[in-house]
Amino acid sequence: MNNIKQNFSIKDLENLCGVKAHTIRIWEKRYELLTPDRTQTNIRTYNLKSLQKLLNVTYLVNSGYKISRISKLNEDEINEYVRRIVSDNSTKNQAINSFKIAMLNYDLNLFLNTYEHLLEKRTFRQVFCDVFIPLLNEVGMLWQTDTINPSHEHFISNLIKQKLLVNIEKVQFIKPTKTDKAFILYLPENEIHELGLLFINYEILLRGYKAIYLGASIPLDSLPSMLDFHQNTIFVSYFTVKPEKERVTDYAKEFNKLVCTHKISEFWMLGKQTINISKNSAPNHRYFDSISDLITEL
Q1: Burial of 25 (0-12, 13-18, 19+ CB in 10 A)
Q2: CB–CB of 293/135 below 8 Å?
Q3: What is the pLDDT along the chain (298 residues), one digit of tens a residue?
Q4: Backbone dihedral region of 178: left (phi > 0), alpha (psi from -120 to 50 degrees) or beta?
Q5: DSSP assignment string, 213-249
Q6: In this structure, are residues 273 and 244 in contact, taking their beta carbons and an 8 Å threshold?
Q7: Which residues contact 197 (CB under 8 A, 6 or more apart)?
Q8: Main-chain phi, psi angles of 180, to 5 degrees
């Protein structure tokens, strides 16, 4: 429990809740919504309970409630209003809030209960696209702004990875029905961010294609032997941090030199590093701005 983050700055609250620090100060002064502690230098600090309250208040405001009305509710009433809205409307935003609280507390039970609740009305694919992808985008920003530490990111990412692997295993038992092309999925050396690629693997299998998932940090010179897997092979890779922006164009060219020699093959790439690739590097290269764009192509 000593590892749980208990105190937050107003900037942390802004990042976690999506409410400007200026607005939080107004809500405190005008409506006494939160009561922060103060450091010896008079800097506001907030506890986990305050964060939870602000997340729920933000959810109500985004659902159309006036802050003046919300400020008159006690904590139990706020929670009840949130539960009522969640039962009547989309659970997406509240689920993301719950996952963020689970991440900050390393709370496995909250993660699992929120996930199971989502599955009552959604498919796994919908949960991943509608909730996990926006959540992971937020987590990335929270990490970059030092609102959370790497252990928080690893905790939530590994739980999502577990759910991906369980669902991938289910579709692996389904015999492929499409034989016109096959996919080989991998991450380049020193690239370890594989959640997006794992989900693409799930979608490929779900659509009845053959696929081999090689995983993270795969050397280029190990790929040519994979060409015998299928006559028409599509390699898929996700560049989040590797190769570096000054290396990524050369990497794509080197891929063609080593891998695309005589067999029919394409190279599909996505991830933020692809914006640094010279887009005329090769005619068999495809670049996708998002997972959904690639899935549409399947």
Answers
A1: middle
A2: no
A3: 345 567 889 999 998 888 999 999 999 999 999 989 888 888 889 988 898 889 889 888 988 899 999 999 998 898 888 777 765 455 677 889 889 988 988 999 999 999 999 999 899 999 999 999 999 988 887 877 778 888 899 999 999 999 999 999 999 998 999 988 999 999 999 998 999 999 999 999 999 999 999 999 999 999 988 888 778 899 999 999 899 989 999 998 899 888 876 666 899 999 989 988 877 667 888 999 999 999 999 8
A4: beta
A5: EEEEEE-GGGSGGGGGG-SEEEEEEE-SS-S-TTTHH
A6: yes
A7: 185, 186, 187, 213, 236, 237, 238
A8: -75, -20
Do residues 124 and 167 lie in contact, with contact meaning Cβ atoms separated by under 8 Å?
yes
Cα–Cα distance for residue pair 110/43, rounded to 1 Å: 31
CA distances from 89 to 82, 83, 94 (A): 10, 10, 10
- Best CA proximity match to 129, nearest among 208, 40, 225, 195: 195
Task: Tell me what pLDDT residue 90 has.
Answer: 58
The type of residue at 57 is: V
119, two tokens: 């599955």
Cβ neighbors of 128 (< 8 A, separation 6 or more) are 164, 199
- Contacts by 242-247 with C-beta closer than 8 Å and gap 24+? 242/187, 242/188, 242/189, 242/190, 242/191, 242/273, 243/188, 243/273, 244/273, 245/273, 245/276, 246/276
